[in-house]
Amino acid sequence: MGNSPSRRTHGEPKRLLVLGAGPAQLGLHRAARERGLFVIACDRDPAAVGFKYAHRRAVVSVEDEAAISRLARAERVDGIIAPGVDWPVALAARVAAHAGLPHAITPEVASLAIVKHRQRARFAEAGVPQPRFHVTTTDESDLPVPCVVKPVDRQGQKGLSVVHERARLPDAVAEAVAASRAGVALVEELVEGPEVTVNAFSVDGVFHPLTVTDRLTADPPAFGVALAHAWPSAHPVEEAVDVARRAAEAMGITDGPTYTQIVLGPDGPRVIELAARLGGGHDAELCEVAVGVDLNGLALAAALGEPVEVPEPQPSAGGACVRFLVAPPGVLEDVEGLEEALALDGVLDARAYRAPGWRFGRLRRGNDRAGFVMARGASRDDALAHADRAADFILFRTAGAEALVDA
């Protein structure tokens, strides 16, 4: 990650292009604005929640590489970053390389990071523990059951199924293939156990683990759908941190943030996937509350080619969490109770993600998160209790659920 002289005149703020202005990018946008950067944001949703922090808004898809490349040149940006979502990570790396901008990872590494089966092949070569997997475009009789079936190039639970009965497997594979950009499904062994996320930052090949959080899911569990991220983890995490380090090294990631999902199986930790970006569930903000490290600030510095030094984590007393809010299916009409929730003890932040008119589906994908509460407490369970109490105050009023058709 080399340094690059600023294109700005003395006293003029550096210009940063942020790919995405939705919930997954909200914390980074706020941090960039607080840092005094000139922020250009792009998102296809004109009502994206992060736009309020941007100096300039571009209503354009974060997957439109030609448009983003033109935007970067026209705005004379000093850096580009894609936090919170996978696919634009490679696009950002390519645009930066073509424009001669600094960037934490190369286009080659970024392209590897966004495609699950290529990641898995690299892990296999390096001996990184992971679930057994198979790549396919059609149902095959010898595929393992129970298993998890998902597209190789999507996130947010789109096209993802947990299959317990073989009769369901053909439909699950067909759904994943249809959702995949490449028309390919990944079928992997279902490893039972708690899920944790390792958030880290690498500098010059040195992996700095920062937080390990538990991904708390519904009961019965919905694989991959986190209802809360809680710190500190309730499980031994040393082996998980080592596995996350090995995964980053296998991918060739020497600089920048990584977000690694790991299941603590009966035979040890297994890597589910690694993302070469900031997590999309307010992981960076939770990191600052939990261990005093400004992970958003580190990512911003890396995107601008500035020197990066990761401070030693200083774990706070007690615990902290991010609790995600859900809304009834239907079209959002109003949100009530946010001010009351923010006034409660232990609540650090509480927000709704969506404006009236947003359509919440029934499938409980990542895109159906309605908002979040961040809380701290004397312990991890105390923080979760504060967040749950705040969530009880927040009401999402929706209508028209009977007319919804989930894609």
Protein model, in words:
By secondary structure, this protein is of the alpha+beta class. It has 3 domains: 99 residues, Rossmann fold, CATH 3.40.50; 58 residues, 2-Layer Sandwich (Dna Ligase, domain 1); 208 residues, ATP-grasp fold, B domain (D-amino Acid Aminotransferase, Chain A, domain 1, 2-Layer Sandwich), CATH 3.30.470. The protein is 28% helix and 28% strand. The strands form 4 sheets. Strands 13-12-9-10-11-14-18-16 form an 8-stranded antiparallel beta sheet. The protein has a 4-stranded parallel beta sheet with strand order 3-2-1-4, sandwiched between helices. Strands 5-8-6-7 form a 4-stranded antiparallel beta sheet. A hairpin with a 2-residue loop joins strand 9 and strand 10. The longest helix has 14 residues.
How would you describe this structure in keywords?
single chain; Dna Ligase, domain 1; 19 strands; globular; 407 residues; eight-stranded antiparallel sheet; four-stranded parallel sheet; Rossmann fold; 28% helix; disordered N terminus; D-amino Acid Aminotransferase, Chain A, domain 1; 3 domains; alpha+beta
Q: How are the elements arranged and paired?
A:
Layout: E1 15-19, H1 26-34, E2 38-42, E3 56-58, H2 65-74, E4 79-81, H3 87-99, H4 107-113, H5 116-126, E5 133-136, E6 147-151, E7 161-163, H6 169-179, E8 185-189, E9 195-203, E10 206-217, E11 226-231, H7 238-251, E12 256-265, E13 268-275, H8 283-291, H9 295-303, E14 319-326, E15 330-336, H10 338-342, E16 347-352, E17 359-360, E18 369-377, H11 380-393, E19 395-399
Parallel strand pairs: 1-2, 1-4, 2-3
Antiparallel strand pairs: 5-8, 6-7, 6-8, 9-10, 9-12, 10-11, 11-14, 12-13, 14-18, 15-17, 15-19, 16-18
